[in-house]
Amino acid sequence: MSDINLPKEAQDEYQRWEMSTLSAEGKTHSRKVERAKPKIPDELAQILENARIEAFKKGYTNGMKEGYEAGLQKAADHEKAIADLARAFTGSLREADEKIAEELLTLALDIAKAMLKTSLNTNHDRVLAVVKESIRYLPMVKQPARILLNPADAEAVKLNLAEELAEGGWLIIEEQTIERGG
Predict the structure, then answer these.
(1) Which of 18, 103, 106, 108 lies at 20 to 30 Å from 6 by C-alpha?
(2) d(CA 47, CA 95)
(3) For the chain, domain boundaries
């Protein structure tokens, strides 16, 4: 607007104002308005950066703690499973030892009976204890188990215990250096 109190010499030349026209294609010319980012004072920027760093540290610490606790729980579960497996294995070994001791005692008594042609009066529990103790000192039995005997004794054992020997996987080996009955 023009100011009426302004002297004529100080006033600009008159210019007519016209509204801009639309082009034939219907496009308008517009100015791009750049939005300026609001300027954040340095102090506020530092506070925001410190808050971001603190939040990162807190999240990292919480994540590490949760991960560590989850790892401990998983390790405890694995430890329990291994302990259960070890107990089951120990129980199975104990059962196998008892079964082997029983079968070995039966075999020894059958051999003695066959050799003497009469039954022996034995305290079954005492003999079984000795056989169990002996098994502990023997290496693990490999199949087929081998029995070394004098050739004459081997023939008698094969005649009298052929079925039991076959079932147990026992192998009779004739050894000349062993005395008969030894």
Answers:
(1) 18
(2) 72
(3) 43-141, 142-182
